[in-house]
């Protein structure tokens, strides 16, 4: 991994003590660094290098995506408000890339959202 300067493997010998990482090759010119069960900690730059003089290298970047989720414990459920008062509904969504949250009424009435505030037209 290039950002930590840690050597992952030399030829097929894996230096890191991580059972999820191994090296494979198709022939003597095509090598693969394989990371099983990728986690967010695996994201970042990686470098393949050839020990020539001068050294030749190729950088690559691993981006790890997480599916969108709604945190039920942090989001509001049913909200009761008195007419004329303000009601706040909260939806806490996570994921990578960050998910886009859309508010929809059950009766499909139009909802206007401006600066995170929901208003009903009219």
From TrEMBL:
Pfam families: Ig_3
KW Repeat (keyword) present: yes
Any one GO cellular component localisation term in the record: neuron projection
Top-rank taxon, per record: Eukaryota
InterPro entries according to UniProt: Ig-like_dom (IPR007110), Ig-like_dom_sf (IPR036179), Ig-like_fold (IPR013783), Neural/epithelial_adhesion (IPR051170)
Domain Ig-like, residue spans: 68-122
Protein name in UniProt: Ig-like domain-containing protein
UniProt source species: Cherax quadricarinatus (Australian red claw crayfish)
Phylogenetic placement of the source organism: Eukaryota, Metazoa, Ecdysozoa, Arthropoda, Crustacea
């Amino acid at each position: 991994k290039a950002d930590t300067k840690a050597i992952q493997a030399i030829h097929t010998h894996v230096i890191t003590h991580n059972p999820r990482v191994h090296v494979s090759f198709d022939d003597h010119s095509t090598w693969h660094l394989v990371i099983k069960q990728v986690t967010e900690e695996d994201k970042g730059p990686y470098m393949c290098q050839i020990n020539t003089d001068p050294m030749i290298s190729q950088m690559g970047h691993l981006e790890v995506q997480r599916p969108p989720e709604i945190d039920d414990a942090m989001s509001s459920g049913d909200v009761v408000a008195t007419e004329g008062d303000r009601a706040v509904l909260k939806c806490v969504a996570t994921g990578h890339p960050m998910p886009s949250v859309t508010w929809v009424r059950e009766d499909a009435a139009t909802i206007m959202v401006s600066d995170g505030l929901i208003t009903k037209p009219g």
